[in-house]
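User: Modeling request: complex.
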Amino acid sequence: DQQVKQNSPSLSVQEGRISILNCDYTNSMFDYFLWYKKYPAEGPTFLISISSIKDKNEDGRFTVFLNKSAKHLSLHIVPSQPGDSAVYFCAASRRDDKIIFGKGTRLHILP
Amino acid sequence: ETGVTQTPRHLVMGMTNKKSLKCEQHLGHNAMYWYKQSAKKPLELMFVYNFKEQTENNSVPSRFSPECPNSSHLFLHLHTLQPEDSALYLCASSHGQGYNNEQFFGPGTRLTVL
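Assistant: Request completed. Predicted assembly structure:
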């Protein structure tokens, strides 16, 4: 059973608009969450993370929101740029344990 | 070379072949990982090494055999694979094995088993 779920396989957003990628998790013991970005023919690269003691973490155009009661997190990208077109993986972990990844969401930024 | 490198980038092998995937990290990290990414599936952790010692084997079949001779190099030896083993195999490294240690990934080896 998947512990980290990204229910949207793909998402298309107009350049300049906000991209919102969603992620749900089932294990309430998770206390650290990460987003990775992957371009074709490259490995995933770390984008942003959030600890469960926070509900928001911002880094430039990227903001991650965590709703622990709903076991939901989201990644906001604003404004979206063409270089943001990639696959985005949500991941979660609990202390001293492995990271569990979701299936990924492919984001297309439209001109 | 910087970061995490993997060779070969593409590999086609028959079910009776024996081959090895190589991963090298130039980041001074102590933990290294093998992941498998199949189509439409999440990244699956296979093995973890911390300071050259295997600390995790995620119920991986014995036809996959990892080797970590030092903290900078990680191998995945393959033998008698099945077509369903065709996937992207990703290597990663991190400073430590703790959950909040950012993992740096290599570009992956695209494996096709015929």
